[in-house]
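COMPLEX REQUEST
Ligand: zinc ion
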Amino acid sequence: MVNFDWTALQNEAVRHLQALIRLETVNPPGNEALAAEYLADILRDEGIEPVILEGSPGRSNLVARLRSADEAAPLLLMGHTDVVPAEADHWTHPPFAAEIADGYIFGRGAVDMKQMVAMELMVMLLLRRMDVPLRRDVIFMASADEEAGGEWGAGWLVDNHPDLIRAEYALNEGGGFAFEVGGTVFYACQTAEKGYARFALRTRGKPGHASVPHNDNAVIHLAAAIQCLGEQTLPVHVTTTLRTMFETIGETQTPEVRAALQTLLDGGGLDPDSLPIREDLRRTFVAMLHNTATPTMLQSGSRVNVIPSVAEAHVDGRIVPDQTRESFRAELEAVLGDQAEIEFLDYGAPLESGPDSPLFEVIRQVMMETMPGAVLVPYMLTGATDAKHVTRLGTQVYGFSPVLYNPQVEHFGLAHGHDERIAVDSMGFGTHTLFDVTKRFCQSNA
Ligand SMILES: [Zn+2]
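STATUS: Structure written out below.
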């Protein structure tokens, strides 16, 4: 057993994160080749030979593998190297300089998700340095294009090189952060992801001259349909992840809070004041319980003096695990009646790996030891990640990107926001935690 100098390793992880932030891999255009080359150099220096695969020019994906002696199915450490754009004017520190201030590393990608890419790189290096005997292969994938859907990244790898990344389990972005309910700190492990089913909401009416109003105006019909959609909450669907999450939280709470959580599970709606948690988290909890339909774009008319015959809204639909486009359509039609036509535009299936798995259990044990008093709960992401691609290979994906709990920092708003940042000591904590989880899950007992 090697005793690592975790302070030195934290510094090393921070250096890799800073280097990655400074490589501008804003998608579009991506240029993830910059990150892939950087990671490849580091891996090669320590005797791990990676493969770089270009989905399209400049859109490089990196895959590296530590081989096991055994047959047990691999663990995939997955990450994406692209980031969303940043409006530099709104940042306290420049978004691609990776400056350290007040104990934080500032930069686009600091929590989504160059930090985890750096941690996963460290896990690969440490397993190698320790020569840990493995019973599962450990695969590291740093892919392109996640922020635009993964067509040239994880999606492309799954379609074109599935054998390189096929794994039984994967660790991904998504969870790993903590939140507090009634004095207890909960660390989230993402075991489910909502799917998306975006649609056009379309109304029709009679065209005409705007100087002579009539009551069959497509624009007015659309406004009514959108209002109707906005006023309704769609039915509750309790998944395994949600039930386990709410019940686990409930066990630590007062009878009143436990009862409020139970009311939520029973479909009784939520009194906004009944849960002692932050407003954003409460809204997230509610979104996890329902399919949602959020209108985001409007399109109608070509001239101000012409009543158009068609009006259209684009609606961002999100569906919970076990729901389908068809069941979602039925819910929407129950609300809208025949007020509007629904045409689905794109679709990504919801996912659920569930909390009953050896990987979830290993994460739970590691967290119990490193964060006594904190409780691991399964969690559902309301957005979508590259998990949607990787699960096509039968992989069970768990979102666990560890970050130290800090009640002062609103972790949710950081990804894609201004002043995206991660605490320096979270890099040490996250690297250590991911290493412990990976080692415990993959090392051979022999
Ligand atoms: Zn991400």
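REMARKS: The mean pLDDT is 94. The first helix runs from residue 6 to 22.
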